[in-house]
Amino acid sequence: MPVVPLSVVVITFNEEANIARCLEAVRGVADDVVVVDSFSTDRTVEICEEMGARVIQHAFEGYVQQKNFATTQAHYDHVLQLDADEVLTPELRQSILAAKHNWQGGGYTLARLTNYCGSWVRHGGWYPDRKLRLYDRRLGQWEGLLLHERYEMQPGQAVGALQGDALHYSYHSIAQHVSQLNRFTSIAADELWLRGKRRVTLFHLLLKPFWKFVHGYFLRLGFLDGFAGLSIALISAVGVFLKFAKLKTRSATVEY
Asked: Whole-angstrom Cα distance, residue 142 to residue 152?
């Protein structure tokens, strides 16, 4: 079987702190690298061009739309989609190279190991956090509404699992996590509204946040990650409350 050429696609906005590390790790794996940028105001584009990536400017319309657009810009049908804050480990690189030499099915999932404020998080539901990121673009597409986009293969397509981790450098500070949580909970509330889920009760405002903490910190062993695990569990619980509280403020069918 001939080796399949591979395009790596990345969407960016003000990722100068991360993008060089991401692009460096795909050297020798990618036959084509395209970065779809949402008009960054920092050095993201300059860094990408210095590292040999093709840069295409495209206004951000949503994660699903942006990733589907980026996929269409790839030179090749076999695509590895990465976020700018993700880095391939040597083991994952070798697994991707092996897939290129013996492609099977429609795509492959990879595991993500997240760095949170300097600590690697292996519990609380954050690992292995498998995502379908290596795929034949002719056999699927990105789907979802406003948040939690995912790549969906056509029915009947086999999906394999790559060995090795993608290192995910998520939050470098608690302040950054809280700031992004505020943004994401607003998007999540909007998505619930669009799905027609507009009823908010004390169950959503009290019990669901409590369960989020218990599930992540105790049942998923988040406490084994020390301070990082505690921070993630607590902030995630607050995020559940904020999502439904924001939905409540725009809902006309609130019940107590």
From this structure: 6
Q: What is the pLDDT of residues 108-126, one digit of tens each?
A: 999 999 999 999 999 999 9
CA 220 – CA 172 distance, rounded (Å):
23
C-alpha distances in Å from residue 161, one per residue of 31, 109, 121, 134, 165:
21, 5, 21, 10, 11
| Distance between CA atoms of residues 82 and 62, nearest Å | 16
Tell me the residue type at 28. G
Eight-state DSSP code of residue 2: P
Type and span of the H or E element at 54: strand 54-57
Q: Say whether pTM exceeds 0.85.
A: yes
- Residue 116's nearest CA partner among 167, 169, 182, 166 is 169
User: Distance (Å, rounded) from C-alpha 86 to C-alpha 169?
Assistant: 6
Retrieve residue 127's tokens: 């690992």
Do the Cβ atoms of 23 and 33 come closer than 8 Å? yes
**What tens digit of pLDDT does each residue of 187-246 get?**
999 999 999 999 999 999 999 999 999 999 999 999 999 999 999 999 999 999 999 999
Answer yes or no: are the C-beta atoms of 15 and 44 closer than 8 Å.
yes
Integer Cα distance of 32 and 52 in angstroms: 9
Tell me if 243 sits within 8 A of 192, measured CB to CB: yes
Of 76, 84, 79, 80, the closest CA to residue 47 belongs to 84
